[in-house]
Design goal:
heterodimer; A: alpha/beta; seven-stranded mixed β-sheet; 12 helices; B: mainly alpha; two-stranded antiparallel ribbon; elongated
Chain lengths: ~260, ~210
């Protein structure tokens, strides 16, 4: 199977993008897949969530060329996550500078796809992007570089409203920039069936996106504790509902 | 009545007056689950075994070991069967077939079948509410892969009329029972070796 690139994207912050990216990446690795997680968010929190430090790897990946010497240097930023099958390509606040460079040099929408193509012959099953909650260069190029996009959204009005904006961006990339990928699904997060707002938003999502709405991830304190301890949900509490829900997501992804 | 707006439908009254863009979601490509490629299965068809009547408890135990040591289930089953066959070859494992009172063939487990059949007959005579009976072993079908043709033929030869003349499932059950017993008593060790893959990315980065 060729390497599948999955982007976790939403322009709205605090919807569970990093938690989803990290949990999905580890979930796939636990299913004996080889996964590379690219932290395209300048906050560098994918590394933190896996118990590592943010580093400027993404800056070099996005700004350097593909000569043998540059490739050697770029590859030197690959980091072990300490988990079988899961490797990390870390980012930090310098990723913002990379975005400026990409825009200043008017690099094409395919810039990230070209940059990661060097990893396609490494025996990877999945490359997963954790993206920043903003637009302006990297997110569009990350979506364009992806085969599949998952859009996490908190089950509350403003977050759901943000989903439309991501969809619009994907639609434009498809129509105007010949993007070949597709939407894998909308992932409702922070779901709480006890609150009317959460339930109503869930109904709105299902009414709008139908079968593209993935099974929800419930609001869970343990997911916040995971980030604090540098462990994934499959390590902190593999028997929890949150672990079960992310396992369901992982199994869904394996079907595509 | 709730005045909650729908994020995907309700719009500002002023916005309604503006020309509407085409529905973005309708034209957006949605991923379809990929069709499973069965080429591997086709190519390795000769390494597949299907046995009827293997004790489900032993099959579950093999599944548990699979999870513990991350080795394909078929490889573990094959290993245990090979161990059982080798023990039978050295005389360490005694497989004595007995006449099966229910059939013309022989059986390795005369008492369990006999008891089970007796229980079924007597309980069906009484029309009282009783516990749900598990399906008989012969209804349970077990499939494993990664079996060499040699092991497959050795088992089928031994089970045939020319060998012990017993059902294949019973023979597999007896072999697995012996080997799993040895494994659980630490007399038999499984030492998995990491499979080589072409994932070399980390070699160039920092561990």
């Amino acid at each position: 199977m060729p390497t599948k690139v999955i982007c976790i994207a939403n322009q709205k912050g605090g919807v569970g993008k990093t938690t989803t990216a990290v949990s999905l990446a580890h979930g796939l690795a636990l299913q004996s897949k080889q996964v590379l997680l690219l932290d395209l968010d300048p906050q560098g929190q994918s590394a933190t969530a896996l118990g590592r430090n943010p580093e400027p790897g993404i800056f070099y990946l996005l700004t350097m060329g593909t000569s043998a010497q540059e490739t050697t240097f770029v590859n030197s930023w690959v980091r072990s996550s300490g988990r079988e099958g899961l490797t990390l390509y870390p980012g930090d606040q310098q990723t913002m500078a990379a975005q400026t460079v990409l825009n200043a040099q008017n690099r094409p929408v395919s810039a990230i796809r070209n940059a990661i193509s060097r990893f396609f012959k490494e025996g990877l099953d999945y490359i997963i992007f954790d993206t920043a909650p903003s637009v302006g260069g990297i997110q569009e190029r990350a979506v364009w570089a992806s085969d599949l996009v998952i859009v996490p959204t908190a089950t509350e009005f403003l977050s759901a409203d943000g989903v439309s904006k991501v969809m619009q961006m994907m639609s434009i990339l498809q129509e105007k920039k010949n993007w070949k990928g597709a939407l894998l699904g909308v992932l409702p997060t922070f779901y709480d069936e006890q609150t009317r707002e959460s339930k109503a938003t869930m109904e709105s999502l299902e009414g709008r996106f139908g079968s593209s709405v993935l099974p929800p991830i419930h609001r869970a304190t343990i997911l916040r504790e995971c980030a604090a301890s540098g462990q994934t949900i499959f390590e902190t509490d593999p028997d929890s509902r949150a672990a079960d829900e992310y396992l369901t997501l992982t199994k869904r992804v394996l079907k595509f | 009545m709730s005045n909650r707006r729908n994020p995907f439908e309700d719009k500002d009254p002023l916005e309604v007056l503006l020309p509407k863009p085409p529905d973005i979601y309708e034209s957006l490509r949605v991923a379809e689950p990929r069709r499973r490629n069965r080429n591997w299965e086709k190519e390795h068809q000769n390494q597949k075994v299907v046995y009827r009547g293997v004790d489900p408890k032993l099959v579950l135990r093999i599944k548990e070991i699979t999870k513990e040591i991350s080795v394909p289930e078929g490889e573990i089953a094959r290993f245990f069967l090979e161990y059982g066959l080798s023990a039978y070859g050295t005389g360490e494992l005694d497989l004595t077939p007995y006449p099966n009172p229910e059939r013309l063939r022989m059986t390795l487990f005369p008492s369990t079948n006999w008891i089970a059949s007796q229980k079924t007959k007597s309980s069906s005579a009484r029309k009282t509410r009783r516990k749900k009976i598990n399906p008989p072993f012969w209804k349970v079908i077990t499939t494993w892969r990664n079996f060499s043709p040699e092991v497959k033929s050795e088992i089928s030869d031994l089970a045939s009329e020319a060998g012990l003349g017993v059902p294949m499932g019973e023979l597999v059950t007896a072999l697995l029972h012996f080997s799993l017993n040895a494994y659980d008593r630490d007399l038999l060790k499984l030492e998995p070796v990491a499979e080589m893959n072409n994932h070399k990315l980390l070699e160039r980065g920092e561990i």
